[in-house]
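Ticket opened by: R.M.
Priority: normal
Category: complex prediction / small molecule

The reporter submitted a protein together with iron/sulfur cluster and asked that the result be attached to this ticket for the collaborator who will pick it up next week. Submitted input follows.
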Amino acid sequence: MSYIPADKLHEEAIKTVKELEGKELKPKDRLSLPRQEMPSQDPEVRKKNMNEVALGYFEEQVKIEAERCLQCKTAPCISGCPVQIDIPGFIKTAAEGDYEKSLSIIKRTSLLPAICGRVCPQEVQCQLPCTVGKSLKDVDLAVSIGRIERFVADWADAKGKKTVPQVKPETGKKVAIIGSGPASITVAADVRREGHEVHMFEAFHKPGGVMVYGIPEFRLPKRIVADEIEALKEMGVKLETNFLVGRTRKIQDLIDKDGFEAVFIGTGAGLPKFMNIEGENLIGVFSANEYLTRVNLMRAYDKERSATPIYQAKKVAVLGGGNVAMDAARSALRMGAAEVHVLYRRTEKEMPARVEEVAHAKEEGITFHFLRSPKRILEGEKGRVRGLEVLKYELGEPDDSGRRRPVEVKNSNYEMEFDTVIVAIGNNSNPLIEKTTPGLDTNKWGNIVADENGKTSMERVFAGGDIVLGAATVILAMGEGRKAAQSINELLSK
Ligand SMILES: Cc1cc2nc3c(=O)[nH]c(=O)nc-3n(C[C@H](O)[C@H](O)[C@H](O)COP(=O)(O)OP(=O)(O)OC[C@H]3O[C@@H](n4cnc5c(N)ncnc54)[C@H](O)[C@@H]3O)c2cc1C
Ligand code: SF4
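Result attached by the on-call engineer:
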């Protein structure tokens, strides 16, 4: 993937649409239509700003991309979608230019299309089994389902066509929702729709979960998440921020003393993992979680106005190979670092980050060091980081995850200079709720145990999203929320 200016992509799409006019397309013609690249900001410009990188399809591009869909009878794409959106259905209506209908089809099963269209890893979900990608023998050539979804959602937003779901008459029953990430947003909407009183408790001063404090503005503008929260408020959901359940109030008290008839726990996986190597307590070492929270939630990028500016880094090492690592690296660049290096102990092929994010990071000038991992963080003056002692690795036999295990190359250590190190090797769940809620079963990783309907070991207590799955994805959190909401609504209907 290399950068093509947006106006060039638009010009080509206009030309192709003209050629398509009045043509009856056979499957062979559809397969030969050019896959539409996502217009994006120029890498040289965007690496200095926080604005969204991907600009969204032009209407002509949507037409072409939607016409690439073969409308397969078996629709394998649907089985790849965690919430089973009627993908051929919404693509067909988008191809016909009926975006309103297209959106209504998506909204039957997915509450957050503007968000999912931007951040879902479609290449390993709906686009993976897509017949077009299979026929062309390249998953990157599958129909760009997520980009069409995003266009339709943005179109509705631009036309002011967003609708607030109808709420049934009040039932007088109260439900507490803990956390305000995608799992909780979904539960709040689905439960409130049935007329129950919904109170959402969020520990941070802003709602939205990782979509606000973790995923950066340049990938998911905060405005989009804020709109979803606003819609909940318009439905009558009561939101309380700066409310840490487990400290401000315990779960049992919400049920016994505050009259909540059901509780949903959607507290996510916000506890960063560390490498447990020497030097992790030095000045200049951050967890990706802390770094991204400071940049995003505390708006450290807004240097003129932010009350909590961030450590000025010049040469940054990011440890890890997932989306979180990419977000941290690209954020560090935008915060003014002269050089950003990502160190990953396997090869590019095993990197869990989305291919698109890695490509964007490379375009922006981030340097990757594969088969490398630090042995220790080196101390410089006054307890500050001065660099890393790095070890080389090679790939051995596959491990439990099926990926080839990285094996240390003996005596391969060397030093690299850095003034900042960001550790992005994953997250666990915060133990606060587990510790303050006797009777709530958790597994060995501290995740809450819930059945397929979101029911936990405690009466009237449900859970879903990352707190159950471990660090996962927005759409999976949303899907879990849907199931838990259904269980809560069934419980309260008795
Ligand atoms: C940097 C980063 C990038 C990511 N990129 C992607 C991506 O591109 N695509 C994708 O699909 N997924 C991505 N993910 C994963 C995705 O964001 C999560 O899977 C998803 O947000 C989980 O949703 P959730 O509702 O379970 O919890 P969260 O979004 O984690 O929200 C939980 C909320 O609960 C609050 N909370 C916690 N404890 C308490 C308490 N005791 N009392 C009250 N409130 C509490 C937290 O403050 C938080 O706001 C990314 C994650 C990170 C960290
Ligand atoms: S699998 Fe691909 S081509 Fe077939 S219906 Fe789904 S999106 Fe269209």
